[in-house]
Amino acid sequence: MSDTTDPRKLPSADPHTGNRRVDPITGYDTTGHDWGGITELNTAFPKIVIWALALTFLYSLVAWILLPAWPLGRDYTRGILGLDQGEQAIEGLRELTDDRLPWLSRFSDGDLRALQSDAVLIRQAMPAAERLFEDNCSACHGATGRGGPGFPVLADGYWLWGDDPGGIAETIRFGINSDHADARIAEMPSFDWMARADRLALADYVARLPGAGPVHSSLPGAALFTENCAACHGDGGRGDLEAGAPSLTDDAVIYGQDRSTVMETLSRGRRGVMPAWIDRLSAAEINLLAIYVYRLGQPVGEGAQ
Amino acid sequence: MADTLSLFERRFALLLSILLAAMGMTMVAAARHGVMAVHGFITIALGVGLVLALGRVYYSAPPVAERAGRFYDAPTRLGIAMTLIWAIIGMGAGVWVSALLYWPDATPAVPWTSFGRLRPVHTTGIIFGFGGNALIATSFHVLQRTSRARLAGSVSPWFVLIGYNLFCVWAVTGYLMGSTQSKEYAEAEWYADLWLVVVWVTYFVLYMRTLARREEPHIYVANWYYLAFILVVAMLHIVNNLALPLRLNAAESLPVWSGVQDAMVQWWYGHNAVAFFLTAGFLGMLYYFLPVRSGRPIWSYRLSIVSFWGITFFYIWVGSHHLHYTALPYWVQTLGMTFSVMLLVPSWASAGNAIATLNGAWNKVRDDATLRFMFVAAVFYGLSTFEGSFLAIRPVNSLSHYTDWTVGHVHSGTLGWVAMIVFGAIYTLVPQLSGRETMASSRAVEWHFWLAVAGTLIYVVAMWNAGITQGLMWRAYNENGALSYSFVQSVEKMAPYYLLRTIGGALFLAGAVICVLNCRATVLLAKGEAADRPLVRQPAE
User: Fold this and answer.
1) Model confidence at B161: pLDDT above 80
2) pLDDT of residue A17
3) A41 contacts chain B (CB < 8 A)
4) Is pLDDT above 80 for B3?
5) Are residues A58 and A195 in the same domain?
6) Is A303:A295 a contact under the CB 8 Å cutoff?
7) Do B341 and A53 touch (CB under 8 A)?
8) Which end of chain A has less neighbouring CB within 10 Å, N or C?
9) In the structure, what pLDDT confidence band is assigned to residue B297 with cuts at 50, 70 and 90?
10) Same domain, A240 and A132
């Protein structure tokens, strides 16, 4: 390493004057450094950069004076605006809540059927209910409540557990088979102990239940059904709304009612879960959702939208 | 590779390779099964492969005596090859996961193909695999040329490169097997992190020793940046990855940081990974290859100095702007915001210095696609740094945060700036190291350039639209105080932008594939070694 910093001894410098090569294009002289052919111009520091630096420093200085900024051991400079982001967040939340309060508070208790017939209130509330439904329920039940395998359709007239807003609200509040103490409990037990031939006969019988036409009680599955299934699903499979046992005679299904799906259900049992929402949504929001879901099931024109 | 080593160095390399295989065996024996055992097997394979490669040339003629008077370019060649391989892996994974966002049902029912496992393959493959190899390879080249000194070691450059790539392979295969410590850009588990420390310290020592040998009185700007990159990344990596292994024979650990301190340390690391990995090192690349390719002097030495110290000083403060409106104390957010704004000036000074350097060479920018890559890189560097400072302002961030705007911002930096300067450097280096004037096909370079520019623009514009749409939809309330849109509606609105993003990414990937083929063709047409001037200064004629 050559350790000289004498300008006259630097490469490209005039050995007598120390003047360096001038770049013909810009007219600036070079710094005299040369790294494998790379040189640098000795361009004066551009004034605009100094101004820009000063401007951003000034911005920062103002921000530091106005806002919480520098740590001081256990405390920090509070800023003359005295802002606190926790308070700001609570304030912002309160403003939004206040906007909703006039109409939302009416849902916190009271007769859901009566609320539902208040057309002005419903028109005001249903867009909010739709957002609530899409943000909380649609992941399983679908954006329009059309459900899917394992997730009941809400946008039809068939119900489990309750067919009025009050019953629906109860389901939303505590869930089904959820971990809440007041959850609705329903389990389709597994019939894996039953002979396969019997299960096949039963599946065949259940698969024929929906739709028109009488099912012959002479079918081999009929007696098996009465013995094993009717306790929950009712005579002839009409279902039991209050016990959460689905009707097997209508064309609404949760998992499917073709023979192979019924065989699967019989062999393994079913224990669908709907979570409890009481800790995530307010009482008013749950009631609002209950009315929204109830209206999803009403015929178009009379019901939702 | 081994034919560049003397007999003593071959023995030393052989010893290191055997130790590597032994380390792999220890890992397999200790872990017996799981991620660490697979990593052990990979290490054994690498160690045995290196022993075989060394054995094949062990008795071949030793290198010429005057090798000390030549630059040591063989490690750079391996580094460039690894850069290109990782480019295809990383960009391919990126295009695939972006397509999964548009066609989520296309995810096969196999765990390792899930989005969550493939996404870090993309980020690690690009940042560490593609970017890291490019930085190491070019740093060896630039360091030697600007210092007029041969690398201060014959085995250590190989150790750095091979060891570094072993880290990348461990990291990426670990993610595929579901192993992660869940820290953004630092997902690799504890033993991979420790291994990287060993590699990185070797890199630092090699760099410093070579610099100490330099024949130039001053240290060139590019080396300041490369050194900042090496030094600060070591610091960031060590602090952020401090963790206690649950067991010494498994890839599981708990970070020593917790709560908001963990978040702060993570984003102090995360943003400085952008600053010192994805910016400082690549500025080093820009400061060398731009003047070399354009044949122009750096426009202002003074500006270089202010930019360098501005960037290194301000960047370290700004990580907290990733945590605006969170549990992080307000005062830390204010500091992050204000330092981000002050950072803009030195960043733009760098970009401006690069563009002003092209004064007098604009005809070359027009005619030479390689130089155009570097010019576009400088422009996108300016754009992304402006955008970054802007997004760091708290109220702006309240709109942009958690949206795809952030993704667009990152990619305007990584596609437009980092990848462009890497390709510019590769197109300068590959012919030179092959003793040629030009790449095998200049038309292919031209095609690559336009594919890359088109891909970047489509990607970035799509993500700007996507992010602003999301931000506005999420904050919209109707007159009754209810949200105007549900979250899933904002997701549905993303479909066209996500499709465009995949198209943009695919164009960029297509350009990279052309680059790989062109580099291969160029190397096959090689006419010997780099014809640089000798190390020792020639007397004036």
Assistant:
1) yes
2) 65
3) yes
4) no
5) no
6) yes
7) no
8) C
9) very high
10) yes
